[in-house]
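Re: How this chain folds, sequence and tokenised backbone to follow

Filed under: protein folding, tokenised backbone structure, sequence and structure records.

Contents: The amino acid chain and a row of whole-number tokens, matched residue for residue.

Body of memo: The sequence and its backbone structure tokens, given next.
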Amino acid sequence: VEDVFGFRAVQVGLPELDCLRANRISFRFSLALEAGAALAADPLQLSLASQSLDLVVLPHTLESHLDAHHVLREAERVLRPEGQVVISGFNNASLWGLRRWFAGRNAGSPWDARFIGLLRLKDWLQLLSFELNGGRFGCYAPPFAQARWRERFGFMEQAGARWWPILGGVYVVRAVKRVHGMRVITPAWRKERARRRALAALPQKNGHPGHAARRRHD
């Protein structure tokens, strides 16, 4: 979000994590149903005017709702043309995704979330006329609960970014809202009438074109 400019920015979800701290937009705020948000609202029904924001950040917001596609449509609605959305999510094709398959129903967060594959998210963005302009993977080490095991496999963070970059446990993507312009097309019969008028012969009163030319010269 560091190089995104504009007038208004909002973070939808996870108000305890300030994802806009590196952004330089003057008016920025958080929105969520959880305590701590500047504005209490449901991501499924954003209480914001259409085309009023320049940046929308969704930190794992899509994964925490049953109708994730509707949340993304709401983000598209409140964004201005050429506005940007930043989305983070858990990668199914990773050790984190594998851990989720073996987790029980009461495993807690984040294993009870609905992981959304990156290819599926790209399809959703394309349907809503978004164009990807950035992305990154991270968290290559296994999701151990104990700190000593995480430190032992810390070498995988640098190695994964170099050798298997698409297998990171978390992805972050950025996309721009594109709105195609309109051009008024003149009816063909108007062009045809103008062409015929240009090709029409001028009447000659004296019968010889040279007489008219000399008269204009005089």
Remarks:
- The longest helix spans residues 188-199.
- The chain has seven helices and seven strands.
- The longest strand covers residues 79-90.
- The CA atoms of residues 203 and 211 lie 13 Å apart.
